[in-house]
Amino acid sequence: MTLIVEDLVAGYGDARVLHGVRLTVGDGEICAILGPNGAGKTTLLRALSGMVKVRGRIALDGAELAGRPPDALARQGVAHVPEGRGTFMPLTVEENLRLGAYVRRDRASVEEDLERVHTYFPVLRTRLKQAAGSLSGGEQQMLAIGRALMLRPRLLLLDEPSLGLAPLVTRELFRIVQAVNAEERTTVVVVEQNAHLALGIAQQAHVLETGRIVLSGTAERIRADEQVAQSYLGYRV
Ligand SMILES: Nc1ncnc2c1ncn2[C@@H]1O[C@H](COP(=O)(O)OP(=O)(O)OP(=O)(O)O)[C@@H](O)[C@H]1O
Ligand SMILES: [Mg+2]
Predict the structure, then answer these.
(1) Is 103's pLDDT higher than 70?
(2) For residues 108 and 110, what is the distance between their CA atoms, to the nearest angstrom?
(3) Is residue 119 part of a domain?
(4) Which one of the ligands is nearest to 212 CA?
(5) R_g of the chain computed on alpha carbons
(6) pLDDT of residue 84
(7) Residue 7 counted as domain residue
(8) 140-161 pLDDT, tens per residue?
(9) By percentage, how much of the chain surpasses pLDDT 90?
(10) Protein residue closest via CA to atom 2 of ligand 1
């Protein structure tokens, strides 16, 4: 799925957060969104999944998505793993995963997809009857991504998947995201504070600052340019 975003404006009430964002993510590509706290990264993902009011253009393989409600976008294959994961803590792992398929009509293949999620995240198979709230942070992030995969997403939006996780767990998580992207050809937009990790799996990257994209390029170029990293990201990548 090719994602084209043009002149995207979004915010909360009268407060405008995004001031005309423009970006393209090629079919099957991973795109990293970097930038400081409060830049509007989460708002951008919310705009892409219909959770905030938007103006401008959001097109997924030519289909216009701007202004459509979240459930309609989910049916178009847009899966959003929110900041803080959004798993339902009192529900079991299996219930959470099945919820991920709620907009799907092809019930028969849901079982197949559960199997597929277990292949990516073997630890979830051993925890199916356990409350999601009893999982470790890393397992909860795996569950959140697994739940998104139950939608058979064509566009997967990940908001700070590494937040609060140990480096080893984070690396494993990113390896799995890369495998999903490679095997399912799912287009991915990942927001990440850990620029080094995100640039390691992305083809393209954009730096967002106060609601505007201030820098775009191949992940390789942005990673290679230390000065850019210092001035825009505020740290070494
Ligand atoms: N629900 C909300 N209502 C009103 N303002 C909000 C809301 N959520 C975010 N904002 C504001 O929008 C701006 C951008 O926030 P956003 O969460 O998109 O940034 P971010 O880049 O994801 O930051 P972080 O790196 O801290 O997650 C901030 O000024 C924030 O205060
Ligand atoms: Mg955020």
Answers:
(1) yes
(2) 5
(3) yes
(4) 1
(5) 17
(6) 84
(7) no
(8) 999 999 999 999 999 999 999 9
(9) 84
(10) 12
Q: How far is the CA of 33 from the centre of ligand 2 (A)?
A: 10
Best probe residue, ligand 1, of 43, 157, 162 (max atoms within 8 Å of C-beta): 43
Q: Which residue has the tokens 């590494």?
A: 162
Q: How far, in Å, from the CA of 123 to the mean position of ligand 1?
A: 33
Examine residue 152 and state whether it is found in any structural domain, yes or no: yes
Bridge partners (DSSP) listed for residue 213 = 208
> How many structural domains comprise the chain?
1
pLDDT at 224: 84
Query: Would 14 be classed as within a structural domain?
Result: no
- The ligand whose atoms approach the alpha carbon of 83 most closely is 2
Q: Does residue 14's CB lie within 6 angstroms of at least one atom of ligand 1?
A: no
Nearest CA to ligand 1 atom 24: 37
Q: What is the mean pLDDT of the chain?
A: 93
| Ion ligand 2 residues within 5 Å by Cβ | 41-42, 83
Amino acid, single-letter form, for residue 188 = V
Q: Ligand 1 centroid to 224 CA: how many Å?
A: 29
Whether 13 shows a pLDDT value over 90: the answer reads yes
d(C-alpha 201, C-alpha 193), whole Å: 14
End-to-end C-alpha distance for the chain, whole angstroms: 29
Rounded to 5 degrees, what angle do the CA atoms 155, 160, 164 make? 145
- List the residue whose alpha carbon is closest to atom 27 of ligand 1: 37
Domain of 105 in residue numbering reads as 29-51+69-233
So what's the pLDDT on residue 223?
A: 86
**Residue 181 belongs to domain with CATH number:** 3.40.50.300
- Whether the pLDDT of residue 14 is over 80: the answer is yes
37 lines ligand 1 (CB under 6 A): yes
Tokens found for residue 51: 């959770």
